[in-house]
Amino acid sequence: MPATDENKMVCQLDDVTKESEAKATQIFDIIDDASSVMILVQFKS
Question: pTM for the full model?
Fold first, then answer.
């Protein structure tokens, strides 16, 4: 497939989507960890 401007844009959007998904996963992991800590603190109280 020739590297047209449209194909380049699709590849760039794909890269941005993958990066966004990775960042979202990291954020949800942090939220999950914080939630787990809060639950443990409540049980110790």
Answer: 0.71
Digit-coded pLDDT (tens) for 10-39:
999 999 999 999 999 999 999 999 999 999
Separation of first and last alpha carbons in the chain = 62
Q: Is the dihedral of CA 19, 24, 29, 31 positive or negative?
A: positive
Cβ-based neighbours of 4, under 8 Å, separated by 6 or more: none
Q: Are 30 and 36 in contact (CB under 8 A)?
A: no
Using CA atoms, how far apart are residues 17 and 9, in angstroms rounded to an integer? Answer: 12
